[in-house]
Please model this.
Amino acid sequence: MDKLKVIVFLPAFNEEESIGNVIFNIPRDFHDNVEVKILVINDGSSDRTVEVSKGAGADYIVSFPQNQGLGAAVRAGLHECFKRGADIGVMIDADGEYPADHIPNLLQPIFKGEADYTMGSRFLGTIKGMKLHRRLGNYCFTFLQTVLLKKWIYDGQSGMRAFTRSALQHAEIIHDYNYAQVLTLNLVRKGFRVKEVPIPYNVRSTGTSFITFKGYLSRVLPAIWKEWSRKVEKVNIPSDNFKLEKSDLGERLTKIS
Ligand SMILES: Nc1nc2c(ncn2[C@@H]2O[C@H](COP(=O)(O)OP(=O)(O)OP(=O)(O)O)[C@@H](O)[C@H]2O)c(=O)[nH]1
Ligand SMILES: [Mg+2]
Model:
């Protein structure tokens, strides 16, 4: 049997201080039938993000000549995973806030055939260091997705997600600034099954966040409305492609302490 190909991609903009550690912590050998490759989407960084990524073992680097924004970087990541033959694509932020060692946990519902799209949920897991206004912003934007989709979502802004090949192929991100909410609306309305997996989270200690209140209100809200009000066709989703024989990853799963 051919191994399943998992490509983990990291959107990165000036993350030289943190990206090396994130790459080191990505588990490569957690299942005999799974091969893991690492792809960095360098969003026009002016620091040593690319050199550090190569040194840490990244297999592929795709660089934008100029900064295009997180939405554009994630769109490219999904597309590159598909193009390079991934059976499953995983995205994880490069700023060290999300637990790369929990990637097997994130993949398990896909391996078991229970989901096509998974998100690491900080609110089902543990959160260290998130400021109150950020927490409230997260609740509001998550609740908006819950209302629109008529489906409970616990963490709609997660920077750690996994996609089956079909989800990689059909996912659309309609703006360059961000992807978090519009991507979930897009995939769920197309019929992809989403599942959230509890993860621990630590607010970044290096680099700078791109989130601003003004940016969120002026760009993210209109994009949510645009995605929500456009017509989206249901996709004929192939089932069971990714069921692994030993889909229970047992001791390879990481507990939240
Ligand atoms: N700042 C920024 N980050 C980008 C951009 N393109 C890609 N990224 C990467 O996208 C990921 C998430 O960016 P963050 O600024 O941490 O956004 P966030 O995690 O939603 O915000 P925080 O909770 O404040 O960290 C990181 O890995 C960034 O390196 C961009 O144009 N600006
Ligand atoms: Mg971050």
User: Anything to note?
Assistant: Residues 132-149 form the longest helix (18 residues). The chain has one domain: 4-233. DSSP finds eight helices and seven strands in the chain.
